[in-house]
Fold:
Amino acid sequence: MLFFKKWAIGTKHAINLIFMTLAITTTFTLAENSLVPLTIVHAEETADDSQAFSFKDSLIVTKSPYSVKTTGKRLELVLMERGFTIFNRIDHAAGANSVGEQLRPTQVIIFGNPRVGTLLMQCQQSVAIDLPQKALIWQNEQGQVQLAYNNPQYLVARHQISGCDQVVENIEKALAAIVKETVER
Structure:
């Protein structure tokens, strides 16, 4: 106690400081003992028949006859008409421009529907890292606008989802119909 008095914090404050230090030490010890190492398994390394997906297979890409901005607006309208929630629209080209860099038009629209997403998460909760769904709209080097989203089969393989075939099939059909309506003239 003399040490703490020496620093002019008094006995009352010294006792509080000691208890606080013990509490923090105990908390860190408990937290450290509860950590479980994360094992990352790549699809190619699995012993079962899981399919490894290439970049090409993991995304479903469709050409759009519209600009990136117009494609994004059309997609948002179709999604809202079907009861989806639009969480955000990220303009990566504007972000690049804000730091003095150049990027062809590139946007991501984040959207979802809790009725559908919840069913998928009930089958395999880790799929939540990939939800809500995202659509990438960009203009490639040749000037062609493209609209892409994660292939639901890629999510099945990535998260080893089982027992959810009908939900996944419904998601596949819904996303395909939404994209088709978005890019039709």
